[in-house]
Amino acid sequence: MTNTDFVVYDTATGRILYSGNVPDTLLVEQELAVGHSLLPVKADGFNEYILEGGVAVKTPFSYSVSVIGLIATLTGLPSGVTVDVSDQSILTDGGVTEIEVDVAGTYTVRLFHSAPHFDETLEVAIG
Fold first, then answer.
1. Least confident residue range of 24-33, 35-44, 67-76
2. What is the DSSP string of 38-106?
3. pLDDT by residue (tens digit) across 86-115?
4. Ramachandran area for residue 14 (φ above 0: left; ψ -120 to 50: alpha; else beta)
5. Measured between alpha carbons, how far is 23 from 78 in angstroms, rounded to an integer?
6. What does the pLDDT read at residue 39?
7. Annotated domain spans of the chain
8. CA distance linking residue 93 with residue 77, whole number of Å
9. Beta-carbon-side half-sphere exposure of residue 67 (alpha carbons within 13 Å)
């Protein structure tokens, strides 16, 4: 009996949700949620995603950050990126994303869930 590497990924985004290695006979028995697919490949969800049925390497985000007063503006993020900062979670729509805070300070901003890009954490001084 041989084992097979596999990934389960989000069919809409290509984001690898988890990977594993199981005996061949169990591969077809994997239960999947709606919108998820299984692909028999070895892949790393941190550095790779699924594109057109194959494994592709993630790339860094390309964006700019500007700050005016208590508002930080991120420009250039693609649609579908989750932006977390403090108690806010924003899903980008491909346009301008604004982060408004009540108190000046340095904030940790996390960008994630965008399959073709690496997750990223940055510090932004606001105010």
1. 24-33
2. EE-S---TTTEEEETTEEEE-B----EEEEETTEEEEESPPEEEEEEETTEEEEEESSEEEEE-SS-EE
3. 889 999 998 899 999 999 999 999 999 888
4. left
5. 38
6. 95
7. 3-57, 64-126
8. 8
9. 13
